[in-house]
């Protein structure tokens, strides 16, 4: 069993568009998303390390690079559909897990199967590396939406995506990397003019105390 099918799958990821079914000025694919998430995760891990965290760098890179590889099996399903019900989400996850397990058994050489079982499993766990992945994934999603909002794309889904990204980041507001995002990145984001900028600005202040503190100084 050579690695041919795994490497071919990398090409397939280039053909899977993100946010399918919506008009966008700048399309994004899953392969590019994985690379961007890895770049963001690398920086966020730097922030956490500088604040005293013990980082397993191999885990950071493996989780980030591989976190969406299994989308080659079922594609990038629209988020509103994917999360429509808990049962549907669970069924999709079960299908993806079954297809991934079969893929590893049939297409990955035996001596590497343990490694790829780890790499292609769910990376967003409770470890600090898993939390960094969760944050990095939402940061890239937020920037994909932001890129459309600053072009005044009228599709309301991008406001919803930006909003949900802020809400997801707020779940990790205790982490040094999210504090950095709140104080050093979001101010630059909100310096631009974009669709529903005021509403999203107020939401960010209500969700992220560190951003609210910076915003109050600037507004004052």
From TrEMBL:
Superkingdom as given in the UniProt entry: Bacteria
Pfam family, any one: YfbR-like
Stated name of the protein: HD domain-containing protein
Record organism: Leuconostoc holzapfelii
């Amino acid at each position: 069993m050579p690695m041919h099918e795994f490497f071919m799958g990398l090409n397939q990821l280039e053909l899977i568009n993100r946010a399918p079914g919506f008009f966008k000025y700048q399309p994004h694919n899953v392969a590019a998303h994985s690379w961007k998430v890895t770049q963001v995760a690398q920086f966020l891990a730097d922030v956490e390390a500088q604040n005293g965290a013990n980082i397993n760098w191999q885990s950071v890179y493996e989780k980030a690079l591989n976190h969406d590889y299994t989308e080659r099996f079922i594609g990038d399903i629209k988020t509103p559909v994917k999360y429509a019900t808990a049962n549907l989400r669970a069924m999709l996850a079960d299908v993806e897990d079954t297809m991934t397990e079969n893929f590893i058994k049939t297409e990955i050489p035996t001596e590497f199967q343990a490694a790829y079982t780890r790499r292609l499993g769910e990376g967003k766990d409770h470890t600090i590396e898993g939390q960094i992945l969760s944050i990095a994934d939402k940061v890239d999603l937020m920037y994909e939406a932001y890129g459309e909002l600053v072009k005044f794309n009228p599709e309301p889904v991008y406001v919803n995506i930006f909003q949900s990204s802020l809400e997801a980041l707020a779940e990790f507001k205790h982490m040094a990397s999210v504090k950095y995002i709140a104080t050093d990145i979001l101010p630059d984001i909100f310096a631009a003019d974009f669709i529903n900028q005021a509403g999203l600005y107020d939401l960010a202040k209500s969700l992220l105390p560190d951003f609210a503190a910076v915003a109050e100084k600037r507004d004052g």
